[in-house]
Amino acid sequence: MEGDAIHHPQHGIGTVQSIRKRSFSGPKGCRFAKLFFPRDEITMMIRESDLADTVRKPIEKPEARGVLEHIGNWNESVSGSWKVRANAQQRKLDDGNPYALAEVYKTLSLLQKTDSLSAADRQQLSHSEQSLAEELAVALEQPVSKVFRYMEKAACQ
Questions:
Q1: For labelling, which of 4, 18, 44, 88 has a CA lying 20 to 30 Å from the CA of 37?
Q2: CA 138, CA 31: separation in Å to the nearest integer?
Q3: For residues 108 and 2, what is the distance between their CA atoms, to the nearest angstrom?
Q4: DSSP-assigned letter for residue 118
Q5: What would the CATH number be for the domain defined by 5-54?
Q6: What is the pLDDT of residue 27?
Q7: What is the pTM of this model?
Q8: pLDDT digits over 39-76, tens only?
Q9: How far is the C-alpha of 20 from the C-alpha of 4, rounded, in Å?
Q10: Strands of the sheet with 5-8, listed across from one edge
């Protein structure tokens, strides 16, 4: 587990730096994982027993291709009310599922071309775009700049 790549819904791709027994307030001798996320330059300590609920393994190349395909095929309508839309999009962002991130990205990318985005929409578009591009870049072994182009091309389909 030490050295493994992980994905966190808010902080993106990271690494398990170490797993050790630590004593903080609470049960003595619990094992904690020390995680590092380079995009936000943040280090986080999480109880080892909570890892599965907090982070997941990054996707691999076949699933990354599926996510790009999903961006191209996604055509569901969204609410015209920015508040309803923002709440629905935020639930998807908090989940961290790459297919849900793809839906947020495509929905808001297309909306941006036809209408102005609210502040919440802009923030959610930026978050979905960054998180998705970062994870796809790792899976496809491509630079993030190239993955952005793949995503833009898929969103225009």
A1: 88
A2: 28
A3: 37
A4: P
A5: 2.40.10
A6: 65
A7: 0.88
A8: 999 999 999 999 999 999 999 999 999 999 999 999 98
A9: 15
A10: 5-8, 12-22, 30-37, 42-47
Q: In the chain, what are the domain boundaries?
A: 5-54, 61-155
CA angle at 107 for the pair 13 and 12, rounded to the nearest 5°: 5
Beta strands of the chain (E only): which ranges? 5-8, 12-22, 30-37, 42-47
Structural tokens at position 87: 């709440």
Buried b (16+ CB within 10 A) or exposed e, 2-32: eeeebbbbebbbbebeebeeeeeeeeeeeeb
What homologous superfamily is domain 61-155 in, according to CATH? CarD-like, C-terminal domain (1.20.58.1290)
Q: Residue 118 to residues 86, 101, 115, 124: CA-CA distances in angstroms?
A: 9, 18, 10, 10
Q: Which two tokens stand for residue 13?
A: 């791709």
State the burial class of residue 49 (Cβ atoms within 10 Å of its Cβ: 0-12, 13-18, 19+). Answer: exposed
Query: Dihedral of CA 46/49/51/57: which sign?
Result: positive
